[in-house]
Specification:
Elements: E1 3-7, H1 15-26, E2 31-36, H2 49-61, H3 67-84, H4 90-101, H5 107-125, E3 129-130, H6 147-157, E4 164-167, E5 170-172, E6 178-180, H7 186-196, E7 201-206, E8 227-229, H8 230-238, H9 249-253, E9 259-263, E10 272-275, H10 279-284, E11 292-305, H11 315-325, E12 339-345, H12 346-349, H13 353-364, E13 368-381, H14 391-401, E14 408-411, E15 417-423, H15 427-445
Parallel strand pairs: 1-2, 1-7, 2-4, 3-4, 7-9, 8-10
Antiparallel strand pairs: 5-6, 9-10, 11-12, 11-13, 13-15, 14-15
Length: 446
């Protein structure tokens, strides 16, 4: 079974973490395609290499010496080299980076060097081939990944008989100029590699043992999710459950390749399996009725009041056109016979709020318009909810018992998610109440 595996920054933070990575990789001959992030933090007083590289760039732009910051990066990699007995010529690599910084430097080139240097060290330590991501991860000029070209380049340059290490987070434009992805982009590199080689599973190793039903910072020892569908993951990630980069899903979902999120520090934990379809496994081991509970604060609700608005053709189009003019995406659109509400993220609308309200009044001839901020959106996600009659009512009743006022509610037609608007101040208590009612009590029953 061939596998693509990606190690996050915490997994390669120092020489001790490198040793754990080697044990994991060598424990399974199928772990052939290794993608690595840059060295992360090894403690509270430490810093991520990528953060330090961005800081170097800021110093250069302001004409301030970056020597001490750069030396911190050098020391970090030299500790890894010396402790592990590596022979890679890091001195030459750092000299080359400094030389490039003495001219008009590229920010993308600079911040990509963390993954590049980590990949060089890890490849030697694993006795694997090193393949620079700039040679095989290709972007279009608009910044989107050219997946077809990536497949061609990877297949042409990877020796099928050897293990290979590829740095994550960056690639190159068609003209060869290095380009980086958004932060966390190594997840995307791993999924591109998994797609190219049609692996049976993509293992994503990080510092948590997969996904949990609720945020461990809010719920003590929450239940771990053994498996989750891509659809459920997307809904949870959108509402704040960030373990995996959102864009990492698409290349593997395209080929129905499962993602296994694992913990480098607890490799015996099976983690969470992300799959297209969990039905066969669910028949053997029924899931909790709720897969996950998550939420985000700071939304704004604009409510338009007009008699018989639901019967007025074109009203929705006119209202949405105002938001489109200001390039603002819509979260939810609750409608009643005389009211029409639009929910948006507060940070996206705050600069244009007065202009938008004015245009809505002018274009739609409203009886009234109301704006409310400080709203949180709570998402309850679960593929098993549609098999539980009255689930929405039970959730609302649970919140009512805790004196939590419900501002909006939206249930997906597939019945996999229910999104509820509450005041910001009530979000944490709402999550705790739902977890206690539907997870803790179900856990006891089991």
């Amino acid at each position: 079974m061939n596998k693509a595996i990606k190690f996050g920054g915490s997994s390669v933070a120092n020489s001790e973490q490198f040793k754990k990575v080697k044990q994991i990789v060598l424990a399974d001959p199928g772990r052939k395609y290794v993608v690595t992030s840059a060295c992360g933090k090894s403690g509270q007083e430490d810093h991520k290499v990528t953060d330090l590289l961005y800081l170097c760039a800021a110093h250069i732009n302001y004409g301030v010496s970056y020597d001490s910051i750069f030396q911190t990066i050098v020391d970090k990699y030299m500790e890894i080299k010396q402790t592990l007995g590596l022979t890679v010529d890091l001195a030459a690599e750092f000299a080359k980076i400094r030389q490039n910084l003495s001219r008009d430097f590229s920010l993308d080139y600079l911040v990509s060097r963390g993954e590049y240097l980590t990949g060089l060290c890890l490849a030697e330590y694993l006795d694997a081939d090193f393949l620079d991501a700039s040679r095989v991860i290709r972007f279009h000029y608009d910044g989107t990944v050219d997946l077809k070209k990536c497949q061609e380049l990877l297949k042409a340059q990877v020796d099928p008989g050897r293990r290979v290490v590829i740095p994550g987070f960056y690639g190159s434009l068609p003209n060869g100029v290095i380009k980086v992805m958004s932060r966390g982009g190594s997840d995307i590199t791993g999924s591109i590699v998994a797609n190219a080689f049609d692996v049976e599973v993509y293992e994503n190793w990080t510092d948590v043992s997969g996904f949990y039903v609720a945020d461990p910072r809010l719920i003590k020892n929450p239940v771990q999710i053994p498996r989750i569908t891509y659809s459920e993951l997307r809904q949870m990630s959108y509402m704040g459950a960030n373990v995996l980069h959102d864009d990492a899903v698409f290349p593997v979902r395209q080929k129905n390749i499962p993602i296994n999120v694992r913990n480098t520090n607890h490799p015996q934990n099976p983690g969470t399996m992300i799959m297209n379809d969990c039905r066969d496994l669910d028949e053997q081991d029924p899931p909790h009725v709720i897969t996950g509970i998550t939420g985000k604060e700071d939304f704004t609700v604009i409510t338009m009041v007009k008699s018989h608005v639901s019967a007025e053709a074109g009203f929705l189009r006119k209202a949405l056109a105002v938001f489109e003019k200001f390039q603002i995406s819509i979260e939810s659109v609750p409608v009643t016979v005389d009211t029409f509400s639009i929910v948006v993220q507060s940070k996206k609308i705050e600069r244009y709020l007065y202009e938008i309200v004015a245009e809505l009044k002018k274009d739609l001839h409203l009886d009234d318009i109301q704006v409310e901020s400080h709203l949180a959106m709570l998402a309850v996600v679960g593929r098993a909810m549609k098999q539980m009659p009255g689930m929405s009512g039970k959730i609302l009743s649970t919140l009512g018992d805790q004196q939590i006022n419900i501002r909006t509610i939206n249930q997906a037609c597939d019945e996999q998610s229910i999104v509820i608007g509450v005041d910001n101040r009530d979000l944490v208590e709402a999550i705790k109440a739902i977890y206690q009612q539907f997870i803790s009590e179900e856990r006891v029953e089991r």
